[in-house]
Amino acid sequence: MATTPDSTKRAYQRTEQRQSATIEAVVHLCGEQDPSTLTTNRIAQKVGVSQGALFKHFPNKSSLWESVAGWVAGQLTTRVFSVADQHEEADKALEAMFLAHIGFIARHPGIPRLMLGELQKPGNQPAKRIIRQTLAFYRQKIVALLHLGIEQKCISPTIDTEAAAVLYIGAIQGLVVQAMVGGDIMSIEESAPRIFKLYSASIRASDDGE
């Protein structure tokens, strides 16, 4: 039987849906166990398909992890960076991005484990490259906002913007680690505003503009 445009479209949509469901399953499972111990069989069980069906959509585990890393990168752009872009004042943008990032992690606690796990792997696999590029882009976004804040005179002109960006990212990582140690990842949303307030105080411009 010849395929029709409609049947081809439906098949493509089913493939996209299955790929999306698989990525969501991986992200969820990474919140329950060490990503390095996650097998394709466990992922297939979570999705509700056979391993053979899983490999119809992802040729191998590396391609699946690459897709997951790409999803994480996309989510950071749409859900975190876009929040910052809604604010004209740099200090407000930095705060909004910080809180949005923490909220994203609270909803997807497997993300930090997944990213750290990929970064620790030897070699330079596609997923690892995507995560490294995403983190580099994230740091550049922070540095750009810090420079904008200096221009707007809401951030001290004497700060080391590169170091301030490292501190910003480190504050997020520290919150995540502490929450994981305490076994309560949801607590990070409660702590985040207080932590950012301390960070903000360290970079804020004084009343006389220095």
UniProtKB/TrEMBL annotation:
SUPFAM superfamilies: Homeodomain-like (SSF46689), Tetracyclin repressor-like, C-terminal domain (SSF48498). Residues 16-76 form the HTH tetR-type domain. The keyword Metal-binding does not apply. Pfam families: TetR_N. InterPro entries: Homeodomain-like_sf (IPR009057), HTH-type_TetR-like_transc_reg (IPR050109), HTH_TetR (IPR001647), Tet_transcr_reg_TetR-rel_C_sf (IPR036271). Residues 39-58 bind DNA. The keyword Transcription regulation applies. Keywords: DNA-binding, Transcription, Transcription regulation. GO terms for molecular function: DNA-binding transcription factor activity; transcription cis-regulatory region binding. PANTHER family: HTH-TYPE TRANSCRIPTIONAL REGULATOR BETI, HTH-TYPE TRANSCRIPTIONAL REGULATOR RUTR. This is TetR family transcriptional regulator. The lineage of its organism: Bacteria, Pseudomonadati, Pseudomonadota, Gammaproteobacteria, Pseudomonadales.
